[in-house]
Amino acid sequence: MKSSKIKSSTEHSGSSEFEQLLESSFAYTPPRRGEIRNAIILQVDVREVIVDMGAKQDGIVPSQDLERLDPEVRQSLKIGAEVPVYVLNPRDQDDNLIVSINMGLQQYDWEKARQLLKSEEAVQVSVTGHNRGGVLVRWNRLEGFIPSSHLVSFNLSSDRRDWSEILNRPLGVKVIEVDQDRRRLIFSEREAQKEWRAQQKARLLAELKEGDRVKGVVTGLRDFGAFVNLGGADGLIHVSELAWHRVDHPRDVLKVGDEIDVYVLALDRQSNRIALSRKRLLSDPWEDADKRYHEGQLIDGTVTNVVDFGAFIALDNGLEGLLHLSEMGDGSLKEPYSYVKKGDRLSLRISHLEPEKRRVGFTQRWGTDSAQGEEGESAPEDAPQDAVDAAPAAEIEAEDIPPADVPPAVEETETAEPEQSA
Hints:
It is a single chain. The protein is an alpha+beta fold and 422 residues long. The protein has four domains: 36-106, CATH 2.40.50.140; 120-193, CATH 2.40.50.140; 209-281, CATH 2.40.50.140; 289-400, CATH 2.40.50.140. Helix content is 21%, strand content 32%. The chain has helices at 2-27, 63-67, 71-75, 101-119, 189-207, 289-292, 387-390, 393-400; strands spanning 36-44, 48-52, 59-62, 82-89, 97-100, 122-131, 134-139, 142-147, 170-179, 184-188, 213-222, 225-229, 234-238, 259-268, 273-277, 298-307, 310-314, 320-324, 345-354, 359-363. A hairpin with a 4-residue loop joins β19 (345-354) and β20. It starts with a helix and ends in a 22-residue tail after the last helix.
């Protein structure tokens, strides 16, 4: 009776083990080409490494694959260590299972690249070559590509340089495409620059205060003003804040690349805008106008604008006034455009000076019967009146007097390329 129970128990145990083996055989999947598995190192030799992949046979890492590993990675290969391996060939001509540690480690980089694509975090890559479409780069163990449209540091179509200077050059980039199946990894330097500029502008806005005096470099010129880089972020000098005299276009007083001092006029931390001024750091020419000039004085000035009723003239220190049409030449002109043009250098006499009203009038009609002469001369009774007063007030105020109010800050436009100075 007892022996029959033992026999029954033994048969039941054997049946259970057989069922487990049968189930495991059905659950087992052989290694497939292109598959990545975790493996345990069983043996490390100079010519190969043997790994246990949980398969029916051990995997072999050939010497060619070991040579592609970084020296520090090769030194870390110890018995018992776990490494990812990539199945190169499930069964070669000698019936061996050939795997790659190098390509297995690349899997970690692909996973990290996918994370960077989501997080939009910037990383550094090194240039390894180029072609017509862009630049070849290396990031960790992966080869990547930067299209020429996403390059900022140089222009492939126009740069004629020694490319040996570019090789191994580090570039800050962002991941914009990941396709591991096609081994396609695309980066953008332009997107990273946008992110970097935004961070720099936020840092500057936190550090700057209104009224600060800082140095910057002119990076772009527009009709409405000049962009100035303050160390990673741009601020704007509105055209009305470039000088005390009238400035029709920033190129008249600045050019791209100029290093200048600027005054922090206004900060808008919500919209990340920085308004700057250049003229606030220049001497106001009206403050000592009564000491430097007097009525009847002969001076030289430059035409800054021509209008129907005359021409505006700027003196060398920035003081600006009007040469009325009636005070041009002999006073018989019907229109000024055929007589003077912007940029002309003229010899004039000050006909009227009112520093308290920031007004000055000029004339070219001097002699025995017109304006007051040189110092010591007395002006005749029919001396001309102030040229500004002679002009229609509404026209001057509406069209020709430079605005004195603080200009609104204008945010930098990312897509526009800086205009080069003439």
